[in-house]
Specification:
Elements lengths: L1 H11 L4 H18 L6 E2 L2 H9 L4 E7 L3 E6 L10 H4 L10 E4 L3 H11 L11 E4 L8 H23 L15 E3 L16 H15 L2 H4 L8 E5 L6 H11 L4 E5 L10 H15 L3 E6 L10 H4 L4 H15 L7 E7 L7 H4 L6 E4 L5 H11 L11 H6 L6 H17 L7 H13 L10 H19 L6 E6 L9 E5 L8 H11 L1 H10 L7 H17 L17 H4 L7 H28 L1 H14 L1 E2 L1 H8 L4 H8 L1
Helix pairs in contact: 2-6, 10-12, 14-16, 16-17, 18-19, 18-20, 18-24, 19-21, 19-23, 20-23, 21-23
């Protein structure tokens, strides 16, 4: 019924802004047509004196507004030949027939008197003066004013349509989107796979809002704020959308950047207006996504420069969360992946009472996430969800959703009716390594070097006990790389020193293979060397795994030294760290060369297979390198 009434009101109101535009345009056109261009002939003062005034042809002279002189010819003289050009016009009898633009009045009168010196007194023509007002002359100044007014009306209308607060005076109004109780969100907790602990915390808040009596009777108070943190893609915003779908209370959602505006004081005003609306609809929930845009630390060492507008907005937010005024019945949800740069006052208890860290999903959680995203995909029986979860360690929920979508796109590109396991495998390779560039032209010499490089990684890692299982080796260009060795990483919470050493040795296997086979090295190991250097510095300077330096860690978790552009150790300690890192890397490089020298025949055979097939899978590796003994060695050590 409400919609029908709205439509009736719209129909009953005939006025529209475009009517005003049409009226102004019509007025302008009518003015032009009603002011026709004068057909009176303009002549010079010399012509007037010699051919008309001195001959006694002039009936009268009328000076209009001291600018133009109108010349009226005697009716009986109009039939003469010299006036035939004006006698044929419509206003020939009524006149004026000619006009003269004059300069000054005194000069014009003196010329008239001089031209009539020889004419009798009773035949002399006097000069008459008239002041005329033509309303069409006002168009010259009124029209620009009307154009400016119409322009500003158009701009204000566009601003209202663009959502800039409703009008020029509403910049301080909140731009939060309100989800009412009757507006059910499509996302619920069933769509959030994994995150069991986080869902328990969030569901408790939702239950508190639905059944507050069960908690308040024991003296419990509703929490004021919940901060969702974690790596990108772990489901922080998705969890908040699920809360909006499950909670039977008004839900306000906006981004932290929406508080910031070019006008001073707008951010603080929007914070006040947001909490005012939320308190009016209490109990309610406010969700601020990417709160680091407004909640950045006020420490000068971290921010490098002051931003009064941002600080005022943050101060107002702190006061609304837990200030002098009561903030009853409003729960604030916030999400960020940069919790280290947030202000300490924002993180204290009483403002954000709960900090929920969303980690990357485990294998069991990845299976659940795959099952959620595979509901809308047509698959065949070859799809193994457990295998897909095993092949995607370290993947976030957003990455898994991307893999499922890429697999469906690949299958559609191949004109297939269903999505199979090979499509998911190729989609994983594309997400991890980039787009396959089979058309990239590589010279035979470069291809030979790439084949031995990737074979060097494979052979080295195959004979090291603590390296992840090798799945396949490829020399097909993908993304920026010319080849890749694909591993099946084990999910570890801690990494031992021996595991670090084997990983460094395996990464250096490609460069070592080039030196062992060709006696020279190439630039193809850039990415490997970058990873090795960072890993070695982490072992020595962060994890305290070097015997000479000892159990010291210079890891800067607070970011204090990074913001001050200084290091937490002396120059002498820096030299020692560099020396130990260099020794660690060179030792493992020699170790990789020893392994490849010992298994040189296997290295050449695998490289030749890659040159022939471009891809070597697990069966090919077992056939050439034999059954891997790494697992048996691990069991013996355990």
């Amino acid at each position: 019924m409400a919609k029908k009434n709205d439509s009736k009101d719209k129909k009953s109101n005939p006025f529209n802004l475009y009517w005003l535009y049409g009226f102004i345009l019509t007025f302008f056109l009518i003015t032009i047509f009603l002011n026709p261009i004068s057909d009176t002939k303009e002549i010079t003062m010399l012509q007037f004196e010699q051919t008309m005034l001195s001959q006694g042809d002039v009936q009268k002279i009328v000076v209009v507004n001291k600018e133009v002189a109108e010349i009226y010819i005697k009716p009986d003289r109009l039939s003469e030949k010299k006036f035939e050009d004006v006698s044929k016009k419509a206003n020939a009898q009524t006149g004026p027939q000619y006009i003269i633009k004059i300069g000054s009045i005194e000069s014009f009168e003196s010329k008239i008197d001089k031209a009539q010196e020889d004419i009798a007194l009773n035949e002399k023509v006097g000069v008459q003066y008239e002041d005329r007002y033509n309303w069409t002359d006002s168009i010259s100044w009124l029209l620009p004013l009307l154009i400016i007014v119409v322009f500003w009306i158009f701009i204000l209308r566009r601003m209202r349509m663009g959502g800039m607060g409703g009008s020029m005076m509403n910049f301080g109004k909140s731009t939060a989107k309100l989800s009412n109780i009757d507006t059910k969100s499509k996302v619920t907790f069933d769509d959030v796979a994994g995150l069991k602990e986080a869902k328990v915390e969030i569901m408790e808040v939702v239950d508190f809002l639905k059944n507050p009596g069960e908690y308040t009777k024991l003296g419990a108070k509703i929490p004021k704020g919940i901060l969702l943190t974690g790596p990108p893609g772990t489901g922080k915003t998705l969890l908040a959308r699920a809360v909006a779908g499950e909670a039977q209370v008004p839900f306000f959602s906006l981004s932290g950047s929406e508080f910031v505006e070019m006008f001073v004081g707008v951010g603080a005003s929007r914070v006040r207006d947001l909490f005012k609306q939320a308190k009016a609809k209490a109990p309610s929930i406010i969700f601020i996504d990417e709160i680091d845009a407004v909640g950045r630390s006020r420490d000068q060492a971290k921010s490098f420069q002051s931003n009064d507008e941002r600080e005022n907005t943050l101060n107002q937010l702190l006061a609304e969360l837990d200030g002098f005024g009561a903030n009853t019945g409003v729960i604030v949800l916030a999400a960020t992946n940069r919790v280290d740069i947030l202000d300490k006052a924002l993180l204290r208890a009483g403002r954000f009472d709960r900090h929920i860290y969303l980690e990357l999903p485990t294998k069991i959680e990845r299976v659940e996430i795959f099952n959620v995203h595979l509901k809308s995909i047509k698959m065949d029986e070859t799809v193994d969800v457990e295998l897909l979860a095993s092949l995607t360690p370290g993947f976030s929920g957003a990455d898994i959703a991307n893999i499922c979508n890429e697999a469906a796109l690949l299958a559609a590109r191949k004109k297939k009716d269903v999505v199979s396991q090979i499509d998911f495998t190729q989609a994983r390779d594309r997400v991890v390594g980039g787009l396959e560039r089979s058309s990239k032209i590589i010279s035979p010499k470069e291809k030979l070097i790439v084949a031995h490089h990737e074979a060097g990684h494979a052979v080295t890692s195959w004979h090291l006990p603590h390296v992840d299982s090798l799945v396949k080796v490829s020399i097909i260009p993908r993304g920026k790389s010319l080849g890749a060795a694909w591993y099946l990483p084990e999910e570890r919470l801690i990494v031992t020193k021996s595991q670090f050493m084997d990983q460094i040795c395996a990464l250096l296997g490609g460069r070592a293979a080039e030196e062992v086979i060709f006696g020279e090295i190439s630039s193809g190991a850039l990415d490997d060397l970058e990873k090795v250097t960072k890993q070695a510095y982490g072992m020595v300077a962060y994890y305290g795994m070097d015997d000479n330096i000892g159990p010291l860690s210079f890891y800067d978790s607070s970011g204090q030294y990074q913001s001050m552009l200084s290091k937490p150790y002396s120059e002498e300690m820096g030299k020692q760290i560099d020396k130990e890192v260099h020794h660690l890397i060179t030792t493992q490089y020699e170790r990789a060369k020893d392994i490849l020298t010992k298994h040189k025949d296997e290295l050449k055979e695998l490289a030749q297979l890659l040159l022939d097939k471009e891809v070597a899978d697990k069966e090919d590796l077992v056939q050439i390198l034999g059954k891997r003994k790494a697992k048996e060695l691990l069991k013996i050590e355990e």
